[in-house]
Write a structure and sequence with these properties.
The chain contains 13 helices and 16 strands. The mean pLDDT is 96. It has 399 residues and is α/β, with parallel strands linked by helices. The protein has a 4-stranded parallel beta sheet with strand order 7-6-8-9, covered by helices on one side.
Length: 399
């Protein structure tokens, strides 16, 4: 809870609980219940053991009925083991590793059927979306700078969820179109998720001649990356995932050096993904004076998903609630929530995919999806604007 990822999980859940309780609570059969939230500080950024112990204590000593949250995938693996053994429903709202659900729910259903994920999309789907954003930037370099085969550096934190993204990116960056991007991998760098300085990695990327940096950063390292990148004026455009850059405090945190950083996000100012997007953002900002990151919209959506399932189940019996959750079809702030056979949130047009956002002119604005073609569908949102290369990147590489 000392990091923004945990704090926004709490904020999102708090906002949902207040709204649900204010509306009369949750109708379950012939009884009506109010939500009581219990704040559990897992310390999962730093200790897997602490995280598992915190979950067990919440279940056995504090006697929680349901669990919502989780961020660091290595810790969530252990946390969900505990929840499954105690037959407690755990709705994940921050950890992306595929293997938290895939290979568990589908192969050992009776033990792991209590686990669901509302956000983010699993790592393999995050790879698909973040690589679509990368494709936008590679194309900009190609068209605006006249570089037919751009060099892409991969900068990914040392964490399990990032491994499949690095593997997929390495393969697709160099693959020829239409399967890949026809670019060149300049190298791969893997700093700690809690590193406070990435100067050595960035200077190495510059020496490697990269024009683009594909980032896979969910932890606090995202801030020093943005600060060091802007301070050193690294002539390579960053795009991918940087959770810290989803916050409206991004520029202040980076000493106003993080302009032009681009990242995958679940939300962007003024962009209505669903009818619930703008009301959620407005309420969140009014209540907490911050712009919500993905763990906030995830926890907010998770409580509404749980309330809806309890209402349809008409019972607090865990088996009945699991079945009701499996039948979920609910629109949240970031998209339509439908679970697949592994209890993962469904990715794709009409479901949840996220947005590409970039800091331009000291404000966050969306640049993707903009005329995204998927089969016979074209996906765009009002307020999405073209991506802009950083001026010093243009100056360094224009031919």
């Amino acid at each position: 809870m000392a990091f923004v990822q945990g704090a926004h999980t709490w904020y999102g859940a708090t906002l949902a609980a207040e709204e649900i309780n204010r509306a009369g609570g949750i109708q379950v059969g012939d009884r009506r219940y109010r939500i009581e939230l219990l704040r559990v500080d897992t310390n999962e950024m730093l200790s897997v053991t602490d995280a598992a112990t915190a979950v067990e204590r919440a279940i056995t000593a504090q006697r929680v009925d349901f669990l919502v949250g989780g961020f660091r995938s290595e810790a969530v693996l252990a946390m969900t083991e505990v929840a499954a053994d105690y037959k407690r429903i755990f709705i994940i709202t921050g950890a992306g590793l595929d293997g938290i659900l895939a290979g568990r729910v589908d192969r050992n259903y009776e033990r792991f059927k209590y686990l669901f994920r509302v956000s983010p999309n699993r790592s393999s789907d995050l790879a698909r979306t973040s690589l679509l954003l990368l494709g936008e930037v590679v194309q900009a370099v190609r068209q605006q700078l006249g570089i037919p085969r751009p060099k892409v550096a991969i900068l990914a934190e040392r964490a399990a969820w990032a491994d499949p993204l690095v593997e997929t990116a390495t393969r697709l960056i160099a693959a020829p179109p239409p399967q890949g991007y026809g670019a060149e991998v300049a190298g791969t760098w893997r700093p700690s998720a809690v590193a406070t300085d990435v100067t050595s990695e960035l200077t190495a990327i510059q020496r490697a001649g990269a024009q683009v940096i594909y980032t896979v950063l969910s932890g606090p390292v995202g801030v020093p990356f943005g600060r060091d990148w802007g301070r050193l004026r690294i002539p390579a455009a960053p795009v991918g995932i940087n959770v810290e850059a989803q916050q409206e405090t991004w520029l202040k945190a980076t000493d106003n050096l993080g302009n032009y950083v681009a990242t995958l996000s679940s939300l962007a100012p003024g962009v209505a993904i669903t009818p619930k997007t703008i009301p959620f953002i407005t309420s969140f900002q009014a209540r907490f004076k911050e712009f919500p990151i993905y763990t906030a919209s995830g926890a907010y959506g998770a409580l509404y998903v749980l309330a809806d399932a309890l209402n349809r189940a008409g019972s607090l019996d865990v088996e009945a609630v699991v079945k009701a959750l499996e039948a979920t079809d609910l629109v949240g702030p970031s998209g339509r929530i439908v679970f697949d056979k592994t209890h993962d949130v469904t990715w794709g047009p009409g479901f949840t995919t996220g947005l590409g956002v970039q800091w331009v002119g000291n404000r966050m604005q969306a640049f993707w999806p903009r005329n995204w073609r998927v089969g016979d569908k074209v996906i765009s949102y009002a307020g999405v604007r073209p991506y802009q290369l950083p001026p010093w990147v243009v100056e360094a590489w224009r031919r």
